[in-house]
Structure formats: structure tokens, C-alpha cells
């Protein structure tokens, strides 16, 4: 019974881990790693939703007979989410380069010139 | 091909095409890119009007992507009928938001012609600008929760890039990275909520999920609701999660500030309304509890925005705080509507919230454009360095005074009407609530009176000799928005009867939203 | 003081040059067969972009990128997006809806089948390949500048 829930428990722990990284770390790069861990946790969650025991990849192969496919929709969703995650991460790293150029540090406690 | 049949998708794909064709057009020079962006944002506006007319005339518009007919949303699988394709579902609420977004977008595009003349990489700016429009329009028109997430990310990523667009200044870069970190954390929460709903109900179509929630509410959906709310409260800039807004909105170029404050945060409010009233439905939830939570958050939001705004020296930062306060009013309307759903008070709350949403988009859009004019002409955003502007740039100053008084809720401008409706609605729930709302409106009034008194009236400093009104392409959008403010203030029944009331009816009528998709 | 541009050893450079074509071909294969095998536009596009990234790693920014090549890649990216958009519009023109699959369907499992889907894969592949390549190139500009900056700092310290 419990085996079926292991991927979800794992995904939620990863998610909390990522959230914790964002909240507790002071280095910008580590925060971005935390964001990525959070995203990966959600991807894992989605993929686990679509998994069927003994299922194969959901592709038309021409083989006849009884076959179990894993659900294709969560895979499509995950792929889309990965692409979006890639774009966000690229954006984040590019801005981080600019942050380093202006502040000479990646410590978020020192990236605080905006006030009021 | 009949344009009216495909109008819903045209609203989304027109700015999308504009975005990716701008790099090619800009090979012919900046002027060509300017005109190209003007054409495409204008076309989007025209299509939004047509879409609105179609919705008003014939009810909810369904557009199914990839189907043989736009209206065929479901497939029949051995007698089991369910929606599989991505679909756009446009009711009066979506159409109202699309109209507001494309209106402000069109004016911001025209304003950008001259405003961005000193910047490099303008073609990239225009691409991101049109992608931002695409994202927002997609969020409000789609009928699919995952698609909503995708459009949310299109909007957010272009917004991050646009906030950090002037990367030579430390301000833009710092605001950009702050916005990006909290914004993508919120997006991830929203994605997790989508994943949970998909896991529970095996569908992504809003109508189908709403139907299944009605039939068999599972305890897991409350986890998804909490994640959704946290994510969208952040995207809407409502108080415990508003800090990014204060940095990000002033740092962006002013035409983008107008879009961010005017409409981007409104998509968060739209999503909250859509989730409460359509996706979950008011019947399954403990609406008194959730409603009061929203009301408390709203009251705190109004006070934080209003009181912190009072002490700002930076004009755009002050406007950003004012945006926070006004989002509080919209949230107050939503909360009241939840507590007293389907009563006079609840209806008034919804009318107030949606009318204030429309008004605030117009007012704050205009005020940020004016802040941009001042920055463009004077080179400063500090209120204390301005003075006597009404003698130097009379038209701009007059528009700012109209906008400032309107947002503070002074008659005869539109902000007064929508705030009055909100006061009435909250007084029917609890008179203390109305008193609090009026007090916080006084804070806003104080905030704007200080700006008007210091910057626009009084004596001009010696440094501001050769200041005059901006070029026409910057002035005309401002003047038109100011005229709209006055018209909506004098004749409030004009927008309320024609577009707000249908939107309120659409919000209240969950059953018709469902039956438009499901047989 | 003349500085040699950044590049790796001759072995790495030679292997990178040899593999460049092979990686491109594999990327194109993944893109074109996206509708009948695992993979598709995004995956193939990333593989294709890896070829460029490998050259960047082996030869350094100065050795690979010129202004013109970067501009070409950027235009290519927009072209991919426009192509995808236009393929969506084919459905509208054929009196169905946006993104409707109206072209010749063929036999399932063959290369020429599934209507617009393989064409869309190619469009997405174009966009992703050039997009990811441009991304990495832009980020490597930062690397290039910071190297130059450090060098200038070191020279300043020596003086």
C-alpha cells in the first residue's frame, strides 16, 4: 500500500527542501538552485501521477496485442514545465551576472540598495 | 475564413505574431518597428472589442484548439463525453479583462515610441512587450488550468526581463532579480496546485474540474486552493507578499510600469475570482471563513499601501504603494462578494471590485505614464526636486491632478464611484469595515495631495526652466485616459450597465460556464 | 602584452571539430522523427544547440562567435516562432480551428505522416536550437568580460 505513495512523499520532501533553500540561504546562486529543486519536485510529482505499473512509453509502435501505456498527458505537461523552467533559469542566471557586475557580490544581504 | 468565428484565438495570436516578427521589421529601422508594434497592439485592441461584442451578443464563446469546429469542446468515447483539447472559454468577465489589457497595452505601445528613443535594443523591448500582452490575454481567455499556468509564465518571464531591461542601472537589476525569485517561487506553487487538481480529477479543463468538484469534493483540493491563493496573491501584489511590487514597478521603463501596475497585477485578481467563483464554486467552500480571510488581508493591504505611500520621496515608488492600496480595495470587493454571495451586498461587492479594477487600470496606467513624462522631461523622480510644474507643462499636470484626485476617491471622477459602491457593499456586511475603507482612502488622498502640492503647484525651482509638455505621441494616450476618467466619473452607468454588470452576472453564473463546455 | 585567446588543448579541439557534424545530425534526427519516436522539437533542438555549446567550450567565445553569427541565430529563432505560428494558422485557413491537423495524415509509424506535427517539430527545433545557442553565447559574453576584467585587475596590481 505504502509503495504507491513513495514517489509523492519524495516529491513533497524535495519541494519543501527547495523552499527551505530559498528561504534560508543567502547566496543568490544557491537560491536559484533551490528554485530549480522546487520545480524538479513538481515535475517528479507530475510524472508519478502518470505512471502505471509495467507500462511502456506512450508511442504508437505498431505492435498489436494487450499493452499498458503510461499516461502521456503528465509527460507532456512535465515537458512544457521543463521548458518553462529552462527559460526562467536562463533569465535568472543572466540577471545574476548583471547583479554581480553591479554589486560585486551574490550575498542577498548586501543586494539591498532599494529602500523605502 | 470568417474572422468572427476565430475572434477568440485572434486576440491571443495577434500580439504573438507581432512579437516574433518585430526583429525582422526592425531591420528596416526603428521607425518601422514603432509603427509595426502600434499596428499589432492596435489590432489586438480592435479584436478585443469585437470579442467583447460577440460575448455580449451571444453569450459564452468557446474556441477549441485543433478541433474541426471551434465549438466542439468534447469528444465522445464509448458514450463517455469529456473535453480533451485545450480550449479558450470567454465569458463576459474574460472579455472585460481582455478589453482593459489591450486598451492599456495599445496606449503604452504608442507612448513607448518616443519614451524609448534613447534606449538601445528597442526591438527586443518591443518583442517582450508584445509577449507580455500575449501572456496576459492568454491568462484571461483560457479555459484550461495548465494553459493558464503556461500563459502566466509567458507573462511573468517577459515581465522579469522588462523590469531588468535597463541593465546599466543597479535599480533595474536588483528589482529584476527580486521579482524573478519570488515570482517563480509563486509560479511553482501554482504549478503544484495544477498538478494536484490533475491528479485528483484527471482533467485540466476548468469546466470539467468544476463539475467534478461539485459532484465529489476531495479533501486534497483544499491544499490546491491554498497553493493557488498563495501564488496568485503574490502575483496580485496583495499584502503579506507585496514587497517585490514596490521595487519592480518603479524600476521598469514607465510604459511597462503602467502595464505592470495597470493590468499585470489585475490578472492575479482575475485568477482569484475565477478560482473562487468558477473553478471551486461557492457552494462547496466555507465561504464565510474564506471571505473573512480575504477581507482581513484586504484591510491590511489598504493600510500598508496607504501609510507607507505617504512617506515616499520617489514619485514612481509612491505610485507603486498606491497600487498596493488599490489592490486592497479590489480584494475587499471579492471578500465581501464571497461572504454575502448572491445578496445585494455581494453583488455590490462584485460590481465595486470589477469597476474599481477597470478604473484603477485606467488611473494607474495614466499616472505611471505621467511619471514617465516627468522623468523624460525633468530627468528626476524625486518629488522634492519638482515644483510649479502646472505652469511649465499644463496639460500633463492637469491630467495628473485628475488622476490623483480620482484614485483618492474625490467626486466627480470614476474612482469615487467605484469606491462608493465598495463602501456601500462593505457597510451592508459590517459598518466598521466601511469606516476602515474610508479612513484608508483618506490616506491615499493625503498621499496624492502631497504630490500635487509639492510637485505641481507652488514655485518652480530655477533648474526647471526649459520644461514643457511632452511630444504628442506621449501626450495623446494620457489625455485620452484622463477623458475616460472624467466620463466614467460623470456617467458611471455607461460602463457599469454595458460591461460591468454582464461580467458580474458571468461570475455569479457558474452553471452556464460549465454547461457551455459540457453537454 | 598580447594574450592568447581562451581555448582548450588541441586534442579537445580536434575531437570537438569531428563531433560537431555528428551531434548536429543526431539533433536533426531527433527533431525529424519527433512524431514517431521519443523526442521531438525541444529535445532535438537542445541536442543541436549542444554542438554549438561544445565549440564554445573548446574554442572560447572569441574563437566561435562573431557579431554576424549571433544576429543570424537570433533571426533564426524568430523565424522558428513565426513558422510555428503560421503552421497553426493552416488549420484556420482550411476552415477548421487554430492548430487543427489538416494536412496529409499518411500511415501511422511512417516518417511522412501525422500532418502538421512533424513540421511543427521542425519549427520548434529551429527555435529551441538557435534560442539555447544564443542563450549560452550571451552568457559566455559575461565570462569573456569577467576574464578581461580580472586580467586588467591583475595588470593593475603588478604596476
Account of the 3D structure:
The complex is a heterotrimer of chains A (116), B (519) and C (159). Chain A has 116 residues and is an all-alpha fold. Chain A has helices at 6-24, 28-50, 72-103. In chain A, helix 1 runs antiparallel to helix 2 (28-50) and helix 2 runs antiparallel to helix 3. Chain A is elongated and about 65 Å long. Chain B has one domain (3-517). Chain B has helices at residues 7-25, 30-58, 92-115, 122-141, 145-163, 170-201, 206-215, 220-236, 243-251, 254-280, 287-310, 315-339, 344-378, 389-392, 394-407, 414-429, 431-456, 472-490, 493-508, 510-517; strands at residues 61-64, 74-77, 80-83, 87-90. Chain B has a two-stranded antiparallel ribbon. Chain B has a two-stranded antiparallel ribbon with strand order 2-3. In chain B, helix 2 (30-58) runs parallel beside helix 4, helix 12 packs antiparallel against helix 13 and helix 16 (414-429) crosses helix 18 (472-490). Chain C has one domain (10-158). In chain C, 36% of the residues are buried. Classes of the chains: A mainly alpha (116), B mainly alpha (519), C mainly alpha (159). Chains A and B meet through helix 1, helix 2 and helix 3 of A and helix 5, helix 6 and helix 9 of B.
Topology:
The complex is a heterotrimer of chains A (116), B (519) and C (159).
Chain A: H1 6-24, H2 28-50, H3 72-103
Chain B: H1 7-25, H2 30-58, E1 61-64, E2 74-77, E3 80-83, E4 87-90, H3 92-115, H4 122-141, H5 145-163, H6 170-201, H7 206-215, H8 220-236, H9 243-251, H10 254-280, H11 287-310, H12 315-339, H13 344-378, H14 389-392, H15 394-407, H16 414-429, H17 431-456, H18 472-490, H19 493-508, H20 510-517
Chain C: H1 10-32, H2 41-64, H3 67-93, H4 117-158
Helix pairs in contact in C: 1-2, 2-4, 3-4
Summed up, what is this model?
Chain A is mainly alpha-helical.
Kindly list the characteristics that best describe this protein.
heterotrimer; A: 116 residues; mainly alpha; Helix Hairpins; 64% helix; C: 159 residues; 4 helices; 0% strand; elongated
Number of domains of chain C: 1
What profile does the largest beta sheet of chain B have? Answer: 2 strands, antiparallel
What is the overall pLDDT average of chain B? 89
Mean pLDDT of chain C: 80
**What profile does the largest beta sheet of chain C have?**
none
Order of helical and strand elements of chain C: HHHH
User: With helices defined by DSSP (H or I, 4 residues minimum), what is the helix count of chain B?
Assistant: 20
Beta-strand percentage of chain C? under 5%
